[in-house]
Amino acid sequence: MKQFLTPLLSIGCLLNSGMMTAGIVDFHNDNVLGTSMHLRIDANDQEAKLAEQAALAEIHRLEKIYSSYDSESELMQIRRGVISTLSPEMHTMVSLCQQWQKELPMAFSCRLGSVIEAWNEAEKKQERPDRKAIRALARKALYSEYTLSDAEIPKDFSWEFSAIAKGYIIDQAIAQARKAAPAANALTLEIGGDIRQWQKPGSKAWAISLANPNQLDDSQQNSLGNIQLNNQAIAYSGHQARSRKIGRRQFSHILQARDGWPRDFPHSVVVIAPTATKADAIATALSTMDVDKALDWVEQTKQVEALLISEDGRQFASSAWHSSDHEDSKAELASANIRFALPKIRSGNYRKPYVALWIENKKRKVVKNLLLLGDSERWMSENSVWWRRQGRKTPTLLDVMARPTRRAGEYQLQWSGRDDFGKAVAAGQYQLIIEAAREHGGHEKISIPFELGKPIKQTEKGQKEIQYIELELRSPLVGNAEIAAN
């Protein structure tokens, strides 16, 4: 079986070697799910070896069921019509897929087998697939009324489990490893970059180095930092390492459930969740969603955090993502509350304004894009200051972070003290700027200068398009110089 996801974590940097103790045993195996497996366990040598054997046995057993690369797997025999009754393991997998398709109906699917086969054939022939035909296959699968209660093989689509299978296999493998090593204190299993970690209560979690999915670098010189998982899992969904090349064009291997086509501006995703199954399914789904919709969904979902990374490296994190990042605990990051309001304008020709909110340094370089409201390039460019300094240079920002403007009223948001690329901003002189422009209306810009490192609470009133903006910088920044203020 080829890998479900390309390896994104360097084994050498996967687990912080500075935290090793005499009881820790490491195992490395190649050619596991088409990639490599790393097992770290805090146990005696005998139990550690039994745990490795149990994990590998479970992985190989489930691979023979779910693989779309092994012609003799249960999945492929179902596709050929050789098998007409589902095994208990296949029934469990299909049930999981049904649950996640219900949870994320337009973003998650295990029904794209025929669509993927069509893409594979197109890549082999080096002919761009017919988009209408691909869409028809995807929608036939999406709207099929098949249920498990039918107790038969679906006729409207073919199953394909790459959106969830690796995570599920990791969970089952770590469960078998724990049974084989009941006296173990901690255990971490990594396959192709996805990780499940378990430790007994009171045991200290191992530090994990996060690879940047947009920069394949085994040396980890460009990592996203270190985190500590506490009986949790982490999964990646990335477009960079695995893509289809047809002619001169590159197409992501991750397809949208609604039409079977990859996104035009794909982003990579890192998800932390209680289980590898959940992390894998969510990471796959979020990678096909718009950034704002993906983060809104995460914020409403308990025990899940996510980081989305655009093609140019800009980061969009859920609210509690950086709470897992222990590197910045050495320095106190800025913490700002920002409020602004759009006035009620009585006009028969009223159009909701396009708004840009950002932080720039003393050289007028945009440090952090905080909010974009309105996704029309034509009218967003009327915010001439933001467009000149940022928008025209990176027009894809409108695709990845613009949200629709609500009606007049108050907006609230927070700034964590990080720039667009996730780095902590250094103390220095900055400005918070809001700019609003309205079709058939006016244009207005307000700025609040501040010194990062000193508390401030300041409100500025607008004249027409902006009612007011308020900045409250509560926590000073101490000793952080990752980014020069100039």
User: What is the number of strand segments?
Assistant: 21
Q: How is the largest sheet built, in terms of strand order?
A: 1-2-3-4-7-10-11-12
Q: Could you name the CATH class of the largest domain? A: Alpha Beta
Tally of contiguous helical segments: 12
Percent of residues in beta strands: 25-35%
Structural class: alpha+beta
Based on CA inertia axes, which overall geometry fits? globular
Please estimate the helix content. Answer: 25-40%
Q: Please state the CA-atom Rg, rounded to the nearest Å.
A: 25 Å
Main beta-sheet strand count, sense and barrel state: 8 strands, antiparallel
Distance between the amino and carboxyl termini: 50 Å
User: What is the number of independent domains?
Assistant: 2
- Superfamily (CATH H level) name of the largest domain: ApbE-like domains
Q: Which fold name corresponds to the CATH topology of the largest domain?
A: T-fold
Q: Estimate the mean pLDDT confidence.
A: 81
Q: Mind telling me which CATH architecture of the largest domain this is?
A: Roll
How are the SSEs ordered, and which strands pair?
Layout: H1 11-14, E1 24-32, E2 35-42, H2 45-66, H3 74-80, H4 88-103, H5 113-125, H6 131-142, H7 165-180, E3 186-191, E4 194-199, E5 207-210, E6 225-228, E7 233-237, E8 243-246, E9 249-252, E10 268-273, H8 276-286, H9 291-299, E11 305-309, E12 315-317, E13 335-342, E14 354-361, E15 366-373, H10 377-380, H11 384-391, H12 397-401, E16 402-403, E17 409-415, E18 428-437, E19 443-452, E20 456-461, E21 468-475
Parallel strand pairs: 15-16
Antiparallel strand pairs: 1-2, 2-3, 3-4, 4-7, 5-6, 7-10, 8-9, 10-11, 11-12, 13-17, 13-21, 14-15, 14-18, 18-19, 20-21
